[in-house]
Amino acid sequence: xxxxxxxxxxxxxxxxxxxxxxxxxxxxxxxxxxxxxxxxxxxxxxxxxxxxxxxxxxxxxxxxxxxxxxxxxxxxxxxxxxxxxxxxxxxxxxxxxxxxxxxxxxxxxxxxxxxxxxxxxxxxxxxxxxxxxxxxxxxxxxxxxxxxxxxxxxxxxxxxxx
Length: 162
Prior knowledge:
Oligomer: single chain
Distance between the termini: 55 Å
Strand content: under 5%
Radius of gyration: 17 Å
Structural class: mainly alpha
Order of helices and strands: HHHHHHH
Number of helices: 7
Largest sheet: none
Number of strands: 0
Number of domains: 1
C-alpha cells in the first residue's frame, strides 16, 4: 500500500538520520567516554557491515516477507546511513571538514535515501524482478568489499601502534 510505503520510508530515513546526526555532534565524545580508538571502531564496524552484507547475499527470496526491493532498500539504507562505517566516516570527516559540512552532507544523503525508498514501488514496476535480485546481490558484494576495507584499515592502524 502506498501509505504504508511512505510511512516505512519516512521511519527508516528518520531513524537512520537521527542516529547519524547524534554521532556527528557527539561521536568523538562518545568514543572518548568509552575509551574506544577509531581503529577499534573501524574494525567492529567493518565486521558488522560484512555480516549484514553476507546475510543479504545469501538470503533467499522466500525469506523476505515484503516486496524484495522494499526490503533490500530498507536493509541497505539504514546500515549505510547509520552503520558503523557511515558513523566512522562521519566522525573522521568532521576532523577534516567540520561539523556543518558533514551535517549538510548527511542531510542530503537522508533526503536522497527517502526519495529512493519512497520510489521503491515504482522502481519495482519498471525494473524486472531478476534485475532487482541481481542488483541487490551486486550491492551486497560491494558492501562486503567496503567492510573488508574498513577491517583492513583498522587492523593496519592498530599494528602501527604496537
